[in-house]
Predict the structure.
Amino acid sequence: APNVDSSHWKSSNESRPKTRSKNRPKIPANYFACVRVDDAELVSKIRDFQCKLEAQRPELKRFFIDTAGLHVTVCVFAIDGPHEMKKIRLALSNASKLLIRSLHSQPLQLAIDGIGTFGNRVLFGKVQHGQLYLEALRKSIVAEARFIGCIDSIVDPDKPFVAHATFAKMNHGQNGIRDIELSKLDI
C-alpha cells in the first residue's frame, strides 16, 4: 500500500485555538463519518470473535454490533442545520479526495489485530493495517473543517484518534465488559 505523506494533510489553520465558539449553542452529536468494514474475511473473523465471546459470556450477545453495519468511525459531528451540513459535506468531500489520491485509487485495506475497551462499556478491535490512512483522513477532515469555517461542528476535533471497530457496546449503567478475559479472546 502506498505511504501517506502527512505534510499533505496539514493546514496552516491548525495552530488556531481549539475551543468551541462561545456563541454556539450546545448541539448533541447527531452524525458521524466512517469507513465501512466490508471485507468478507475480516467480517468473518469478527463474527468468530463474537462467537468466542458469547461462549464465555452468553448474556453479552444482545450488546453485539451487527457485522453487517461494521465500521470505523473517523469523526463525530454535532451539526446545527442545513448550512452547517453543506459545509461539513464539502470538508468530507475534499478530505476523501485527498485520501483517494494518496491510495492511488486502490481500496483502503484494513486489518484488526488486538482487542481493547473504552471503559466498561465498549469492546473493540484495534485497527492496525490501514490505521495511518484513517488518521490522515481524520486530520484532513479536521483541517478542511477549520479552513471552511465549520470546525465547531466536529465533536472533540483535537482528541487523539483511536482507529477501532466496535464489536459490543453496553448501555449506560451496564458494566459487563470489565469481567471479560480478553487474553482468551484473541482476534
Remarks:
- DSSP finds three helices and five strands in the chain.
- Confidence is low (pLDDT under 50) at residues 1-19.
- Strands lie at 31-36, 71-77, 112-118, 122-127, 164-169.
